[in-house]
């Protein structure tokens, strides 16, 4: 059997395997990124018109495109509904962007760490990944300038607001500086914002695309983190030079996004009901974030450093004594605790040992302490073995 | 702006443009392939569990995979639920198969004509298309053998049952012969069957994949033609050597298919309610097929030849005096009638003039005669101009 060349780059998904192992009910899992079941809103279907069952437009439902454009304008993004493409979850934006830009060897700029599933999509298409180290307030600007001066990347893929996995929120200054650099070098920005609305602490986060003056851009988001991921409804907004190509790629990928999910999303976007739901969601997750912080202080203060995430679903821990955290997985699962190793979030995993991503949205607060205590013990055991 | 090399092969979709023009209410459209609005079944949502809103498995809902495997086994396809992948409409199967097999220059075998959106997907990824002429009972076997002897295609993509556009149903003999040839040369079969259930006249059509003894295969179908296309729920079944790769490609494409549509599809598959609906659907479309045949005899007997389709949604006309039917579109739209030119259904459009695809499912029978009369006049005018 002869497969395409790209299949040699199709990696088995470590996350899939961890999540499968973590499904045993006795496992306390910090591994996934699932919204809490209790916070899935009750939705109504009775009013959905029968005609929604028919084929739809590849662009998406006109009213939903209008609502998303209006929402984006309220964030400062100058755009029209004609620039909005409804996608089958924002993961699809990554697939479409890969197809639009990436040939084997095409250079792209990523944060280090970056979103694992984006990295996998870009690498599948053969991208040469240029990494920019992530600091607490955004990317290291000198490194970004150097990559732009020494290379000709097709785009920069950035997650400036509560990045999965690092939880970093770019500062105002870094947002401005990144926009200015991309304008200076004429490099397209793909700005991925699934976690924008999951904000627990005040602070500005105007999108970087709204600060661009010349560079092309794709801005992408989803209702998966705030409404229902099972709907598989996301969106992208693109500059007019990119939009027609993305639309044709969308049509070739799956004709159009399911209309049932689009209709449901439209029942929520921009409504008072949605605002109230978002507010509840933030309160709920803030409590879990705070409980996790307390438990981490108790069990991990000697083992790791971290910043308290101001939004999103994850803590990102840096071990004081680095080790390849992938080697901890088997021991952790034996102790019925699951976590996500940090290495796969880097284009060069082996050069970046010593990080853990811990989800705080899914596990109930009363099980937190026990789970973190077990995980800390697994790490201590590994340190002892390494020292022996 | 530097795009990937494949974007140079991303064609503007003629169908999109025709369908857009055909949306004016005064246009009588034979162009699309939409199910009749009146036959979209009324569906219930009240019993859908809230948990369906959560993220799901990339493979699809376990119960739906079981139901599809059982249905396939009843067609003679030896398979397990573990070989079933739920996709976002069967169009996605083409995207995943393109990624799995096609590098620029990869040879593949197609029927001539073949399904337009498949051709576009394969060509986007850079396939070198080897065409096998379609006859009334299936592909020309000598041509197929010759392609297999002289080339090393990655797969053969075939639509043996009521193909869009030609409406051909392969005979039993050709199904056996094709299976034997693919086994002999060890070439993977992708068998696409969206129209299997839309059958109006009796006759066997056991899938070709069920006749293979050695070759790998992907079998794909959808609920779009029989239930609701707006759900975007299709499936593929693949041999175990292909399945794990397709699953990872699915995950990279959009994580998983929307669960709301999957849940609804599961309420129908294998039920008495579904059988009754399919029976109504066949009766409804058979009446329209027969009305179209009468109207065609009246208006096109001197202009074209065709076979009466035994299933599917289309008549495929061969003009007695060939001309590039794309050149008829403007004149037809001026007369407020739309159709689909045949040329784009061939890998080499310019070498295959003189075919028209006419849909009979969407237009109401009382408007048929007027629409076909106008279209016939447009063709006669073109013949006169060409003769002048």
TrEMBL record, chains A, B:
Domain Aminotransferase class I/classII large per the UniProt entry, residue ranges: 46-375
Record keywords, A-Z: Aminotransferase, Pyridoxal phosphate, Transferase
Q: Which domain of life is it from?
A: Bacteria
UniProt record, GO biological process: alpha-amino acid metabolic process
A GO molecular function assigned to this protein is: pyridoxal phosphate binding
- Record Pfam families: Aminotran_1_2
Q: Check the record and name the InterPro entries matching this protein.
A: Aminotransferase_I/II_large (IPR004839), Class-I_PLP-dep_aminotransf (IPR050859), PyrdxlP-dep_Trfase (IPR015424), PyrdxlP-dep_Trfase_major (IPR015421), PyrdxlP-dep_Trfase_small (IPR015422)
Gene3D superfamilies named among the record's database cross-references = Aspartate Aminotransferase, domain 1 (3.90.1150.10), Type I PLP-dependent aspartate aminotransferase-like (Major domain) (3.40.640.10)
Q: Which cofactor does it need?
A: pyridoxal 5'-phosphate
Task: Give the record's family classification.
Answer: Belongs to the class-I pyridoxal-phosphate-dependent aminotransferase family.
Q: How does it assemble?
A: Homodimer.
Q: What is this protein called?
A: Aminotransferase
Question: What species is this protein from?
Answer: Pseudomonas turukhanskensis
């Amino acid at each position: 059997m002869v497969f395409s060349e790209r299949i040699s780059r199709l990696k088995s998904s470590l996350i899939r395997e961890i999540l499968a192992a973590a499904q045993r009910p006795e496992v306390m899992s910090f591994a996934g990124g699932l919204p809490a079941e209790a916070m899935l809103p009750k939705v109504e279907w009775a009013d959905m018109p029968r005609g929604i069952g028919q084929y739809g437009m590849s662009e998406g439902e006109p009213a939903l495109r209008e609502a998303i454009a209006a929402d984006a304008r309220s964030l400062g993004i100058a755009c029209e509904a004609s620039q909005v493409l409804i996608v089958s979850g924002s993961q699809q934006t990554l697939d479409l962007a890969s197809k639009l830009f990436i040939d084997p060897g095409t250079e792209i700029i990523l944060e280090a760490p970056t979103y694992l599933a984006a990295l996998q999509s870009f690498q599948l298409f053969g991208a040469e990944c240029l990494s920019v180290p992530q600091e607490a307030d955004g990317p290291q600007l000198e490194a970004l300038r150097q990559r732009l001066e020494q290379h000709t990347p097709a785009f920069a893929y950035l997650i400036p607001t509560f990045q999965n996995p690092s939880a970093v929120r770019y500062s105002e200054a870094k947002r401005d500086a990144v926009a200015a650099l991309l304008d200076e070098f004429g490099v397209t920005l793909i700005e991925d914002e699934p976690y924008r609305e999951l904000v627990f602490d005040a602070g500005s986060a105007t999108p970087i695309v709204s600060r661009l003056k010349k560079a092309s851009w794709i801005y992408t988001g989803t209702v998966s983190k705030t409404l229902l991921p099972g709907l598989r409804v996301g969106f992208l907004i693109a500059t007019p030079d990119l939009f027609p190509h993305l639309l044709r790629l969308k049509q070739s990928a799956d004709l159009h996004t399911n209309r049932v999910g689009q209709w449901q999303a439209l029942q929520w976007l921009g409504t008072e009901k949605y605002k109230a739901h978002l507010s509840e969601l933030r309160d709920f997750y803030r409590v879990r974030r705070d409980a996790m912080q307390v438990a981490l202080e108790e069990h991990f203060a000697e083992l790791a450093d971290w910043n308290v995430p101001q939004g999103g679903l994850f803590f990102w821990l840096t071990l004081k004594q680095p080790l390849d955290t992938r080697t901890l997985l088997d021991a952790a699962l034996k102790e019925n605790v699951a976590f996500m190793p940090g290495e796969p979030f880097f284009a060069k995993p082996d050069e970046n040992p010593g990080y853990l991503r811990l989800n705080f949205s899914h596990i109930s607060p009363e099980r937190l302490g026990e789970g973190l205590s077990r995980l800390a013990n697994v790490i201590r055991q590994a340190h002892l073995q390494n020292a022996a």
